[in-house]
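Here's a chain:
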Amino acid sequence: MKSKKNILWIAVVLVIGIYLFSAVKDRFAFAGSKPAVNEIAPEFSLKDLNGRNVRLSDFKEKVVLVNFWASWCPPCKMEIPGFQKVYDAYKHKGFTVVGIAKDDVSQSFIKEMGMTYPVAMADDKVIRNYGNITGLPTSFLVGKDGRILKKIMGMYLEGSLKNDVENALKNRK
């Protein structure tokens, strides 16, 4: 009889624990979903590999792809050539890419990947302000008005990016 009571108590504690974990997990998942589409993209000031500041506000009135990536991330490396193509095609029309590396990356890696757009080193603040990014790649397409047009968790395919950039450049905002 005593063992049945113990099993019942263990089951009750387990159910309560699962419930509490689910509630806390959902709260953190919601917090991590910020910033959301149509919100103003958080400002950042980060250092590039040459020690120069890169700020989102440096690109006012432009459409900006803010891309969080790492050199060890295969999908990140797969999407970089497409980003570079779209950047080359639209950089004189009001579009730029800002790559934000979550790991220590070298000039040789950037050269090897053919990246000519700005690349900055992530810090804890930018990671937190963009939703505690843990999954890579994660990208935010920011309109000319500074609002987030699109949030992409996972690969951002070249064709989709090109289409989104063309639409954003047509928009006055």
Notes: The chain has five helices and seven strands. The chain has a mean pLDDT of 89. The chain has two domains: 1-32, 45-170.
